[in-house]
UniProtKB/TrEMBL annotation:
Gene3D superfamilies reported in the protein's UniProt record: TonB-dependent receptor, beta-barrel domain (2.40.170.20), TonB-dependent receptor, plug domain (2.170.130.10)
Domain named TonB-dependent receptor-like beta-barrel: residues: 183-610
Protein family: Belongs to the TonB-dependent receptor family.
Biological source species: Labilibaculum manganireducens
Localisation: Cell outer membrane
Keyword Cytoplasm appears in the UniProt entry: no
Stored PANTHER family: HEMOGLOBIN AND HEMOGLOBIN-HAPTOGLOBIN-BINDING PROTEIN 1-RELATED, TONB-DEPENDENT OUTER MEMBRANE RECEPTOR
Membrane topology: Multi-pass membrane protein
UniProt superkingdom: Bacteria
Protein name as annotated: TonB-dependent receptor plug domain-containing protein
Length: 636
């Protein structure tokens, strides 16, 4: 099947190439935005990509990325509590290890766990937050069955400068302060920020797992975080040079679990990370050249004293990882509609912890071939990739996707067929007692068909619709399963199927100084075990809700803005066979902006969980009830 698929795609593109020769390759007009655009963005134009509105990013500036995505996108957030607790993002029925989180094109998922802890990422630290549903594995690499999340701070080549302060206070002694500044002209673009966050997070909740469902107050749940992100972009004689650095520390007391008795815990966790990169790109004739090198260092220390009187540690665990990532890219433009891209990667990976039998290091390399053709009828993209790893043997990967303008300015049709894979993580292979060096890599095929209704006049405004149906067949899914006692182990649970639909509708109405934007998003998903030899055959995978609904409406009038946001999540199963009840959450938002002689000022207010619902996302981990937040943003 793979050979037939590859043959069909190559023949199709060869025929496109012959056609394109008639267009005249000697005169190629390439937009400057295409020169600067990252490679992943260039070859994801046929994917369902949603950019989070800047108003929503600013509104949740004081929260982490998991809070922003949970409220604004069809992303399933799994959280071990709130306010700094571990939070991962799953998309389209996949888990957090199937979602690639990238900072300016650099993957930041944990080398040891495979997922990205979104509680470590501040929502307001980036100009752009994009969600790519079902991101192509042959383009992104391991672990993109669900999709990808792109975080970036984009350069601005206009002459301007600003400095600012953003501060927010809220319930449960939560505070967040951020200082930021920007400067740009025709050859330099700089943005920098430093932030500090603290929360006592001693909220009350209803303990459904204790007799009589008493009201408890969570203690030992303090959270501190601070860090800085710096971005510098230079444009010198048409050479584009990028620098970036990101340092962050989080110290979190881990609160007690729900269950019989009051919540008691003496656990702490400290996370620190440093990420830096340098990149260069240049257009030379019909060639676009790009190179990037990045260094990432992550450290985690987890301790548990076991009791208030214990001066030593019941558990003391340190995990450190270091990565050196290198990327070289060459693109050739046959014409302004037809381009071919060759990409090479080399990564050096190292895990350091006493939880492994010695320090572990791996080398991996990757080669990718991609072609893009954009005639008047739409866009066609083919990608092929092969990866090599010193410890595992990844499969070859393919993808063919298209976006066809069925009725120009009215309806587009999106389609895709591609392979995917995910290699076992360091913890899954090497963790003492639990690890399994014989784990197989996940692999399989996924398919997608979508219909997009472009902006049309309706209901006194403009309306857009986006409908997608998808199916993924996965072999050798890796999951941590409960074993004897409290020990969990990673195993290949066999074949799985993930299928479903997602629908998004947006209506925009503007009358003079009044504007109203309303959106409704719905996802229906069925992710289940399809291994006939398994005891769990046809059973839904853990923590995969069948239904997710997101609703938002924002009203802007002059200097005022008001909004309501609602989320609904259906019941989920656990790996132990229990159930976590669904929830419905509603937030209210308000803001007022005004200018003075020295600054632009915006005042904000927000009520989260307006209905004061007691709920959990992961079993036994309580989530907070109603909370109030007030903020001020000043730009000089």
């Amino acid at each position: 099947m793979k050979l037939k698929f590859l043959f069909t795609v190559i023949v199709s593109f060869l025929s496109f190439g012959v056609w394109s020769q008639t267009l005249g390759v000697d005169t190629i007009r390439i937009e400057s935005i295409d020169i600067v655009a990252p490679r992943l963005q260039h070859f994801s134009s046929t994917e369902k990509t949603v950019q989070i509105d800047s108003i929503l990013i600013q509104r949740y500036d004081g929260k982490d990325l998991s809070s922003l995505l949970q409220k604004t996108s069809l992303v399933n957030i799994s959280s071990n509590g709130a306010f700094g607790a571990l939070a991962t993002a799953g998309m389209r029925g996949a888990s957090g290890t199937h979602t690639s989180v990238n900072w300016n094109g650099i993957p930041v998922n944990s080398l040891t766990t495979g997922s990205a802890d979104l509680s470590l990422i501040n929502a307001g630290s980036f100009d752009q937050v994009q969600v790519i549903y079902g991101a192509v594995g042959s383009l992104y690499g391991s672990g993109t069955l669900g999709g990808a999340i792109e975080l970036s701070n984009t350069p601005d080549w206009k002459k301007k400068s600003s400095v600012g302060l953003n501060s927010e206070i809220g319930s449960f002694s939560n505070t967040k302060t951020k200082l930021f500044g920007k400067y740009s002209n025709k050859w330099i673009s700089y943005s920098g920020q430093a932030f500090f966050q603290y929360g006592k997070n001693d909220f009350s909740y209803t303990d459904f797992h204790d007799f009589g469902s008493p009201t408890e107050r969570l203690n030992n749940n303090e959270n501190r975080a601070f860090g800085t992100i710096q971005d510098l972009h230079l444009k010198i004689n048409e050479h584009y040079i990028d620098f970036g650095a990101w340092y962050q520390v989080k110290e979190k007391n881990i609160g007690g679990l729900m269950g019989i008795g009051a919540p008691i815990s003496y656990q702490k966790q400290r996370d620190s990370s440093f990420k830096a990169y340098i990149g260069w790109k240049k257009l030379i004739g019909k060639f676009r050249l790009e190179a990037k090198s990045a260094y990432l260092s992550d450290y985690l220390k987890y301790t548990d004293r076991g009791s208030a009187t214990n001066t030593g540690y019941k558990i003391f665990s340190e995990i450190e990882s270091k990565r050196w990532l290198n990327d070289v890219n060459l693109r050739y433009y046959f014409s302004d509609k037809w381009s071919v891209d060759i990409n090479g990667k080399y990564n050096w990976l190292k895990g350091i912890t006493n939880n492994y039998d010695g320090n572990i290091h791996e080398n991996e390399s990757r080669a990718t071939l991609a072609a893009k053709y954009t005639p008047l009828i739409g866009t066609f993209i083919f990608t092929y990739a092969k990866e090599w790893n010193s410890e595992v043997n990844p499969p070859e990967m393919y993808s063919f996707s298209s976006l066809i303008h069925l009725f120009p300015t009215i309806i587009d049709i999106r389609s895709k067929a591609s392979t995917h894979y995910k290699r076992p993580t360091f913890n899954e292979r090497y963790w003492n007692i639990s690890g399994n060096v014989d784990l197989k890599s996940e692999n399989g095929w996924n398919y997608e068909l979508g219909v997009v209704m472009l902006s049309q006049k309706a209901l006194y405004g403009d309306i857009t619709l986006d409908f997608n149906a998808y199916k993924a067949l996965n072999d050798d899914l890796i999951a941590w399963q409960p074993g004897s006692g409290t020990l969990w182990k990673p195993i290949n649970i066999g074949k799985t199927v993930i299928q479903g639909v997602d629908i998004e509708a947006t209506h925009f109405l503007k009358v003079k100084n009044n504007s109203l934007r309303t959106s409704l998003k719905y996802a229906c998903n069925d992710a289940y075990n399809n291994d006939k030899e398994s005891d769990n055959y046809k059973k839904t995978l853990a923590y995969r809700p069948h239904h997710i609904v997101k609703f938002s409406s924002d009203y802007l009038f002059g200097k005022w803005e008001f909004g309501i946001l609602g989320t609904v999540r259906s019941n989920t199963n656990t790996w132990e066979g229990d159930q976590v009840d669904g929830n419905m959450l509603i937030d209210l938002n308000g803001g007022y902006r005004f200018d003075t002689s020295f600054a632009k000022i915006k005042l904000t207010g927000r009520v989260e969980n307006l209905l004061d619902e007691s709920y959990e996302i992961v079993r036994f981990y309580p989530m907070p009830g109603r909370a109030y937040y007030f903020g001020v943003n000043v730009i000089f």
